[in-house]
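User: Predict the structure for this protein chain, please.
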Amino acid sequence: MSGPVNAGLPLWREAALVAAKDLRIETRARVTSGQVLPFALVVVLLFAFALDPDRGLLGRVAPGLFWVTVLLAALLAVGRSVAVEQAAGVRDQALLAGLDGTGVFLGKVAAVTVELAVLEVVLGATMVVLYDVQVTGGAVLAAAALPATAGIAATGTLYAGLASGTRMRDTLLPLLVLPVTSPVLLGATRAFEDALDGAAGDAWGWVALLWVFALFAVAAGMLAFGALWEDGGA
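Assistant: Here is the predicted structure, written as structure tokens:
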């Protein structure tokens, strides 16, 4: 869509403006650091207490638990990301400014990806200490984490926009996102397992799967989120 203020603004520039706005809001509100991160750390600590003293088992389940925790934390992050647009007429102002729904989607995905990446670093460091994980295959871990995080952020943002117009949005969002992101959970977990086991060569097939999913999720969101944005569903 076009508008009187931002007509002709490149899509990447619109996305950058939205991402910067969301990250500024997050910096001031500190929801990720004050709510999402503590939630993730509590999950990790609970499993550490539940599975201890078998530290060998802790190390084996670390990759799967890591990505389950990231996925659950992402539900909180994307829910807030879309809810921000509902507050104080932010969405209406953005529409009047001529922001395109595709640019809004990409900006929100970028912001959520950054927030999750910060969470993953802290979460990973915590698990290394608590679960006695020996980090190997750093390049594979990074190559798998990027598309996995982006795929979760894109899928979550799209479905958060879909659920935002319903009364059951808080309970509907997990029901929509969790089944769809199961390939990410599987692929990222297996890639991390292979990398940590010293079999980095076996992980690249899973990394490729994660990139395919991420590209598909972003493309689907770019096509669908615009309609939700203009119709008031997001």
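The longest helix spans residues 55-86.
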